[in-house]
Amino acid sequence: MKLIAQIIIALIAVEHIYILWIEMFAWTTKGKATFKSFPEHLFEPTKALAANQGLYNGFLSAGLIWSLFISDPTWAKNVATFFLGCVVVAGLYGGLTANKGILVKQMLPAVLALIAVLVWM
Known about the structure:
By secondary structure, this protein is an all-alpha fold.
């Protein structure tokens, strides 16, 4: 069961690496296709802002990946819980302020992973 929790954590980390890539390196291309409700004329002027957001997604991913390599079970659980909690809060805020889809695409998987971590790790 611990392995299932770790696989979910890894998948969420990969999701945030993908978000990092879109926001930092493909904002004016893939970003337009992903964030369809955002006005097209604002992608170029908001590249630096998006890159900053992408960097934060990278930090979330790094923390989740770090939790998978910690040998002490208590610390691995604590680190995973902290970073998953950050993803849940970010997903909730984004879902309430930017796009409701974030609640399902970002927050829900993190909630499921957090439950898995708390129960199985």
